[in-house]
Sequence to fold (68 residues):
Amino acid sequence: MNLKDFEWIRKPESYKISDDKIEVTTKPYTDLWQRTYYHFQNDNAPVFQMETNEQYFSFIVKTAFEES
Fold:
């Protein structure tokens, strides 16, 4: 997977991309929360995405949260 094939939808506050890591700092209260039983939707978080022709595509993400 080539990270140069990815593009941002709503860039984050800041980010760093290296060969083995992507660090993202978002603004407070950003989320991609959809379809709750009480009709809450929040679709304002940064998205780093790419197109693929694969019918089934998956990858593993390891996440660490830190307060700054």
Summary: The chain has no helices and six strands.
